[in-house]
């Protein structure tokens, strides 16, 4: 069979688009299509019509005709089979099936025609393969656009963080001057208060400095912080005589605790004065034919810190999400108020939070045997094909409210089989690294909740492609535990806060 050309004509036989598959002049194809329009006026209702040199095989599709021009000695059965495939391709790109719609999608139709016929001979392709081949370029373009948008978004966020860092650094310098705070006691597990008395000195540079010799170490009892002894009084007098300004314990208890101004600025970069940090770790083993091995387990912690001395007495409204999990509150908080109102406050209303210290708030653990709780399900169907294997891999985002980032699906490839040949790929890109096929997807959300990839290998068996390992990140809690609102205790004024969530994949495998 030699296919000379494929054309789409209107009911009057006028050619709308035409694609030649052999060397033909424009005048030649226009003359053939003009003769076809004259043959159509004879009233014949056959699916083909012949002239002295060529055969026209045609099929009406609503307001248009799909016409193939072949040689007279071609196989009519193959001609009709090819015509049916062309007739199925046209509605894929033209929904209205009229002249305007055909002209609007002319290039898409020509690209699809090229996938069916090459140099006059039909290719062994299906409608699904034609759709995949014609969309490959657009898929790569979408990936590049998504990557460029991600880079632009990251650049904007980096500039905002830098601006906040410089602003916070100026505030820190204004508050701390040029002094170096000596530190502050952390929040221990004992029943003592958060505030630990310290001695902080700030050098007065207006006064000249003189050499200072430290007193010899005493052989008696060690000096205890917060307990006035003769050695302490003598040491304080020496500091004052050298131009040091000594702060009292009461005043120092409200001071900031970073070791240097630079450290304070770096910690506050890109964050609000009240910053909430949550961390989760997920463990999951799934059978290749479905079902969990053991239970899906997610553990997490939530803490916060404040860097503003005016925001040390706060109450936090907590959300526990829709999923059932075991949540524990830190002992220093009022458990009854948390259970009844969902609000976390300290048991002692007069007690304040320490500055620049991560204050633990919640920890939780979720254990489930329900497959619907799996955030990202992976289905793999390897099958033998001749001497090799064909593998179809599918991901499904069960919770479309989530947005998973930097997803990597690692599929082991049998040794000695070489680089796998990837055919269909719905989303992302792939690479062959360290004996594994790495399917990398920048973002999986509700717009790309399902994706597939198909590849072949010249060797191996269906058991060679396991275990499949998965890694990803997520900017929100998988369980749904979060801080919804923060208010001051005194006047219940809303406090602006920033959040940060990190996810660690302890084990996420399909075996």
From TrEMBL:
Pfam short name (any one): Clat_adaptor_s
UniProt xrefs under Gene3D superfamilies: 3.30.450.60, Mu homology domain, subdomain B
Record keywords, A-Z: Cytoplasm, Cytoplasmic vesicle, ER-Golgi transport, Golgi apparatus, Membrane, Protein transport, Transport
BP GO annotations: endoplasmic reticulum to Golgi vesicle-mediated transport; Golgi localization; protein transport; retrograde vesicle-mediated transport, Golgi to endoplasmic reticulum
Quaternary data: Oligomeric complex that consists of at least the alpha, beta, beta', gamma, delta, epsilon and zeta subunits.
Family: Belongs to the adaptor complexes medium subunit family. Delta-COP subfamily.
Protein name: Coatomer subunit delta
């Amino acid at each position: 069979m030699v296919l000379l050309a494929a054309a789409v004509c209107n009911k009057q036989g006028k050619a709308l688009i035409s694609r030649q598959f052999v060397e033909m002049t424009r005048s030649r194809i226009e003359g053939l299509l003009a003769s076809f329009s004259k043959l159509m006026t004879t009233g014949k209702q056959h699916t083909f019509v012949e002239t002295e040199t060529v055969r026209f095989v045609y099929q009406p599709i609503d307001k248009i005709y799909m016409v193939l021009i072949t040689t007279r000695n071609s196989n009519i059965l193959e001609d009709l089979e090819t015509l049916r495939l062309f007739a199925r391709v046209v509605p894929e790109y033209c929904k209205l099936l009229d002249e305007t719609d055909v002209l609007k999608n002319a290039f898409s139709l020509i690209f699809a025609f090229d996938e069916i016929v090459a140099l006059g001979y039909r290719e062994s392709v299906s409608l699904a393969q034609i759709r995949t081949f014609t969309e490959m370029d657009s898929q790569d373009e979408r990936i590049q656009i998504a990557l460029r948008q991600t880079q632009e978004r990251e650049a904007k966020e980096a500039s905002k963080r830098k601006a906040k860092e410089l602003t916070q650094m100026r505030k820190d310098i204004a508050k701390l001057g040029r002094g170096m705070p000596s530190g502050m006691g952390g929040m221990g597990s004992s029943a003592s208060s958060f505030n630990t008395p310290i001695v902080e000195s700030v050098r007065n540079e207006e006064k000249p400095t003189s050499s200072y010799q430290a007193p010899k170490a005493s052989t008696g009892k060690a000096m205890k912080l917060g307990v006035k002894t003769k050695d302490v009084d003598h040491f304080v007098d020496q500091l004052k005589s050298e131009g040091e300004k000594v702060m009292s314990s009461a005043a120092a208890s409200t001071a900031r605790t970073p070791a240097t101004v630079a450290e304070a600025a770096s910690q506050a970069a890109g964050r609000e004065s009240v910053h909430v940090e949550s961390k989760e770790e997920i463990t999951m083993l799934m059978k290749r034919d479905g079902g969990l091995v053991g239970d899906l387990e997610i553990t997490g912690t939530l803490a916060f810190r404040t860097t503003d001395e005016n925001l040390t007495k706060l109450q936090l409204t907590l959300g526990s999400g829709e999923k059932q999990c075991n949540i524990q509150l830190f002992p220093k908080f009022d458990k009854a108020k948390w259970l009844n109102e969902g609000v976390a406050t300290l048991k002692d209303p007069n007690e304040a939070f320490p500055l620049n210290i991560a204050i633990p708030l919640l920890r939780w653990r979720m254990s489930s045997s329900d497959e619907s709780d799996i955030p990202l399900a992976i289905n793999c169907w390897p099958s033998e094909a001749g001497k090799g294997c064909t593998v179809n891999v599918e991901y499904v985002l069960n919770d479309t409210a989530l947005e998973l980032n930097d997803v990597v699906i690692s599929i082991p490839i049998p040794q000695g089989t070489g680089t796998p040949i990837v055919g269909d790929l719905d989303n992302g890109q792939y690479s062959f690294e360290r004996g594994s096929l790495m399917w990398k997807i920048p973002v999986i959300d509700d717009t790309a909740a399902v994706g597939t990839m198909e590849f072949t290998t010249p060797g191996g068996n269906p058991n060679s492609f396991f275990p499949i390992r998965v890694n990803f990140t997520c900017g929100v809690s998988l369980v749904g535990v979060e801080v919804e609102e923060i208010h001051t205790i005194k006047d219940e004024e809303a406090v602006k806060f920033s959040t940060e969530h990190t996810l660690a994949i302890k084990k996420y495998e399909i075996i």
